[in-house]
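Postdoc handover notes: sequence design on the structure in folder B. Input tokens:
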């Protein structure tokens, strides 16, 4: 049994409320959907036979092994090829735009999303803000992918790739596939959402090929397509911005952008640059969930033992990992953000040696974006956690393991409310 009564001493900035703000994505216009029609291969001459060209797709091995059933043991996992997350190029049906080579990486701090295309003068004003060194115009909306609601970006591959995580940005094949009309989906959406690498899926009323697994790490964004493909999906043109301002106070810049942009615009903070404030060095006990709230949340999660894992599910009959956390804490009156990367920002980090029942444990398990928070579980006590593990499994108790463990967070209801 771990002693969880030690006081917190680490300063956690109030700006963490903005760390993982989840923008509401506009829905694509159903009247603008265009269905992809396959064309027959014409006969060249009567003496020539028809040729059927097969698209050969290389699939990545994505299976892992269950963690050991012992408290806080190092989890042994098979070594995964760092490559293998890009499908072989498909047959060319039209000239594919060339993608410029990567020259340098650009760190993104803010993602702006509006319901309608942003006026050029507003984009120019955003570029002129103090500390802003780069602004990339993109498209953003929620698109149905094989029945799943997927937050999707439409991008210009040549100019957007520097804003992606290093391994993704460097992959020429990945961006060539996107330019050719494929979509790249997050590792979790591919692995647990059933969008197999190289497969064809229904996206916004047309057929799209899953050309790569690539987690961009921008809030709830789970898919990336070219801007040309975005047009065919009915995604608004130029209604979003990716902003780089590595030396600016992200919180202050976010506030300025919300004032100058059209009403209803949203600004998500990613990779923030925090200006530290002097102040308290410990959190009062009243900052956290009460004993009664913790018991209600734990009992609510326990009551869902055996329910199936489904990517994107929020309950009450099926869950993904962060959906279970959000639902269980809601039963205790605590409003939690939706995805694990956001839930990481709902309170101060606590040493694993001081973990208490009701604390959240987080992992970085995404090989396409190793720094991204991709998994969460609820600590139960005695080295055990309650978790919705992955597709094919169910909500269950599991021994805590430390492989890829990012840390432990003690939830503050007030902070959690601010992570929208």
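Designed sequence:
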């Amino acid at each position: 049994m771990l002693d969880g009564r030690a006081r917190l001493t680490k300063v956690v900035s109030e700006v963490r409320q903005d760390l993982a703000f989840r923008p509401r994505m506009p829905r694509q216009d159903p009247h603008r959907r265009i269905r992809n029609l396959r064309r027959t291969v014409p006969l060249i001459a009567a003496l020539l036979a028809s040729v059927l060209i097969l698209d050969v797709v290389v699939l990545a091995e994505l299976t892992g092994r269950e963690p050991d059933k012992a408290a806080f043991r190092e989890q042994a996992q098979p070594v995964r090829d760092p490559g293998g997350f890009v499908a072989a190029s498909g047959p060319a049906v039209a000239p594919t735009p060339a993608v410029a080579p990567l020259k340098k990486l650009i760190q993104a701090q803010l993602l702006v999303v509006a319901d309608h295309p942003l006026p050029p003068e507003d984009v120019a004003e955003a570029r002129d803000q103090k500390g802003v060194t780069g602004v990339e115009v993109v498209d953003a909306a929620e698109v149905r992918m094989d029945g799943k609601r997927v937050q999707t970006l439409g991008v210009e591959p040549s100019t957007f790739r520097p804003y992606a995580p290093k391994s993704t940005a460097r992959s020429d094949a990945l961006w060539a596939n996107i330019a050719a009309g494929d979509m790249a989906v997050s590792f979790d959406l591919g692995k647990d959402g059933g969008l197999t690498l190289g497969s064809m899926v229904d996206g916004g009323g047309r057929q799209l090929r899953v050309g790569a697994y690539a987690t961009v790490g921008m809030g709830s964004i789970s898919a990336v397509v070219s801007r040309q493909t975005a047009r065919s999906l009915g995604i608004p043109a130029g209604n979003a911005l990716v902003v780089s301002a590595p030396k600016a106070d992200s919180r202050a810049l976010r506030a300025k952008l919300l004032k100058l942009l059209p009403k209803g615009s949203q600004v998500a903070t990613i990779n923030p640059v925090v200006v530290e404030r002097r102040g308290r060095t410990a959190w009062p006990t009243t900052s956290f969930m009460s004993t009664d709230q913790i018991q209600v949340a734990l009992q609510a999660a326990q009551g869902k033992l055996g329910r199936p894992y489904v990517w994107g599910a929020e309950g009450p009959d099926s869950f993904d990992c962060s959906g279970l956390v959000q639902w269980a804490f809601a039963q205790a009156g605590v409003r939690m953000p939706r995805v694990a990367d956001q839930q990481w920002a709902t309170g101060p980090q606590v040493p694993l040696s001081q973990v208490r029942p009701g604390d959240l444990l987080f992992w970085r398990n995404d090989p396409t974006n190793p720094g991204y928070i991709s998994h969460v579980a609820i600590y139960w006590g005695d080295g055990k956690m309650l978790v919705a593990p992955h597709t094919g499994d169910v909500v269950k108790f599991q021994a805590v393991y430390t492989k890829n463990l990012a840390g432990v967070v003690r939830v503050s209801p007030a902070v959690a409310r601010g992570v929208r």
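Context for whoever picks this up: Residues 291-302 form the longest helix (12 residues). Don't rerun without checking with the PI first.
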